[in-house]
């Protein structure tokens, strides 16, 4: 077992252990607050903070090793911090005064009695571990000392695009929800007319971009941390994102069924007109 752990540690970026400790500490503190407030969805507000804290920790670890932050390290840290602070502020504003999110209420109901204690590992420890794994390319990119190259530029451009795309999508949704006339209606304007979850698409692009920067800095030796963008994309599509949000939304908002018919879930596409259908082979003849 010790050999396996040692082998794993050799792949992890410098400061990974410290980053895990920092994220775990933040998660534990949030769990205590959630027990006091009876609101496990506080973890959503802290999710982006975990990544910002990891980025800072990796920069500090690099300095502790006697290396000044490189342009790559500063660029990646700035990208992750900007993404994290913006998303944390958005989720905090959106959820303020609404109590525990419906999704967490369902988890609570399934795991009573004793959910307060069970949530420590079912919600908070799990999300802390996931954030730590997803943040591995951040550590790899920050630790790399090679000159900036084409992959770095491409990765930073993709990451900036993703973070900006997510921010625009969130802002459009916030304005839509602020209008009383839109209560109960389906948001299908702007970026939300190109896909049903443009915020998730933007977030996935951000992490694929960070991974490209890691590969740009460390070469093929960093290819293994492709687990990060693959994991976050899977979570957004199949677990806590699209699949969970759309599980029963058609029952609560009948108009959403038509939205699904004409709008892709994740990858943006110009929406088809109402009543339009895909062109078949027979139609093309």
Q: Helical proportion?
A: over 70%
Q: What's the β-strand tally?
A: 0
Largest sheet: none
Distance between the termini: 63 Å
Characterization of the model:
This protein is mainly alpha-helical and 285 residues long. It has one domain. It has helices at residues 2-11, 16-37, 42-64, 71-95, 102-110, 115-134, 136-143, 150-178, 198-218, 227-239, 242-245, 249-252, 255-262, 281-284. It starts with a helix and ends with a helix. Residues 4-8 and 275-285 have low confidence and may be disordered.
Features:
single chain; 285 residues; mainly alpha; 14 helices; 0% strand; globular
List the helices and strands and how they pair.
Layout: H1 2-11, H2 16-37, H3 42-64, H4 71-95, H5 102-110, H6 115-134, H7 136-143, H8 150-178, H9 198-218, H10 227-239, H11 242-245, H12 249-252, H13 255-262, H14 281-284
Helix pairs in contact: 2-3, 2-6, 3-4, 3-6, 3-7, 4-7, 4-8, 7-9, 8-9, 9-10
Brief write-up:
This protein has helices at 2-11, 16-37, 42-64, 71-95, 102-110, 115-134, 136-143, 150-178, 198-218, 227-239, 242-245, 249-252, 255-262, 281-284. By secondary structure, the protein is mainly alpha-helical.
């Amino acid at each position: 077992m010790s050999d396996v752990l040692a082998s794993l540690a050799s792949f992890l970026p410098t400061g990974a252990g410290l980053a895990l400790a920092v994220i775990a500490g933040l998660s534990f503190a949030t769990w205590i607050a959630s027990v006091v407030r009876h609101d496990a969805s506080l973890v959503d507000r802290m999710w982006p903070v975990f990544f910002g804290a990891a980025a800072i920790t990796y920069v500090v670890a690099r300095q502790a090793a006697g290396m000044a932050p490189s342009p790559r390290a500063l660029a990646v840290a700035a990208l992750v911090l900007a993404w994290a602070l913006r998303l944390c502020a958005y989720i905090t504003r959106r959820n303020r005064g609404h109590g525990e999110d419906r999704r967490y209420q369902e988890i609570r109901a399934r795991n009573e009695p004793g959910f307060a204690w069970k949530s420590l590992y079912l919600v908070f420890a799990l999300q802390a571990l996931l954030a730590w794994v997803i943040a591995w390319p951040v550590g790899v990119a920050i630790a790399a000392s090679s000159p900036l190259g084409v992959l770095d530029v491409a990765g930073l451009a993709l990451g900036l695009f993703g973070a900006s795309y997510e921010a625009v999508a969130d802002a459009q949704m916030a304005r839509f929800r602020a209008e009383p006339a839109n209560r109960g209606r389906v948001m299908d304007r702007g970026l939300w007319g190109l896909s049903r979850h443009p915020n998730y698409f933007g977030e996935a692009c951000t992490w694929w971009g960070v991974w490209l920067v890691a590969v740009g800095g460390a070469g093929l030796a960093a290819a293994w941390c492709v687990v990060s963008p693959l994991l976050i994309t899977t979570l957004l599509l199949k677990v806590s994102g699209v699949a969970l949000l759309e599980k029963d939304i058609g029952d609560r908002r009948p108009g959403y069924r038509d939205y699904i018919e004409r709008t892709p879930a994740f990858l943006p596409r110009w929406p088809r007109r109402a009543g339009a259908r895909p062109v078949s082979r027979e139609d093309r003849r």
